[in-house]
Specification:
Number of strands: 0
Order of helices and strands: HHHHHHHHHHH
Helix content: over 70%
Structural class: mainly alpha
Shape: globular
Strand content: under 5%
């Protein structure tokens, strides 16, 4: 018996679920819990299989075709393994990978060809930076100084709303570039920082409630005091 909901779907309606499952997979991988990772890998695999079935129904491909396509792609983009190209480090592998991609038939030309504009901001910034780096336009060092310089420009632009908008973007872009050079995923790092902040604020509110205070009625200094206690409790928990 066929599922009525399944029959109504196409790739446009399914992809939002695919993106959601990809984020859940990323969270599971970041958690370090193998059981969660196993579960979320299954959900992502189901999404891939579902989309492949839609292709098969209209005679445009199959799950086997998807697997064969990625096999050929991996062989083509790893000439240092399946060919006679020699590389000294991982950076050369990535540079060759991007160069080979640019030469593949049907791809949009240019340094930034086929960079999807609907990526989340941090990932879009990293993708643009990676493409620029693959053309040779990159820092040799981790550009901490760029972040510091952009922060100074932001301070100077504080009274100008339009300039502040521009400079905040530059600060974030520079921070993503530091993350890229450190091989840190900026999206996952930002989400982890947000979760830490969320947990600390919730703990601070709970501490206030146990002391007979309503968090929303407290002044900034009192809230900061409870927040400091929450951070201290977190640090003590990490050290145990």
């Amino acid at each position: 018996m066929e599922c009525p909901w399944d029959r109504e779907q196409d790739e446009r309606s399914i992809v939002p679920h695919t993106v959601e499952e990809a984020y859940e997979l990323a969270a599971a991988a970041h958690s370090g819990e193998d059981a969660k990772l196993l579960d979320e890998l299954g959900d992502v695999l189901f999404q891939v299989h579902f989309l492949a079935l839609l292709l098969e129904e209209r005679g445009a491909g199959s799950f086997a075709d998807v697997a064969e396509h990625v096999r050929q792609k991996l062989v083509r983009r790893h000439p240092h393994i399946f060919g006679d190209v020699e590389v000294e480090h991982a950076g050369e592998v990535l540079k060759n990978w991007d160069a080979i991609k640019r030469e593949e038939p049907g791809r949009e030309p240019g340094i930034f060809g086929e960079v999807p504009e609907n990526l989340p901001g941090p990932l879009y910034a990293r993708k643009v930076q990676r493409r620029a780096a693959s053309s040779g336009f990159d820092f040799e060092h981790v550009p901490y100084d760029a972040v510091e310089g952009e922060l100074e420009e932001l301070r100077e632009a504080e009274s100008d709303r339009e300039a502040s908008f521009h400079e905040v973007g530059d600060v974030l872009f520079a921070a993503v570039n530091v993350a890229r050079k450190l091989k840190v995923d900026p999206e996952l790092a930002l989400r982890a920082a947000s979760e830490r902040f969320r947990g600390r604020v919730q703990t601070a509110a709970d501490l206030a409630a146990r002391a007979g205070a309503d968090w929303n009625d407290l002044g900034p200094n009192a809230q900061l005091g409870y927040y400091a206690q929450a951070r201290l409790a977190e640090q003590q928990g990490d050290s145990e």
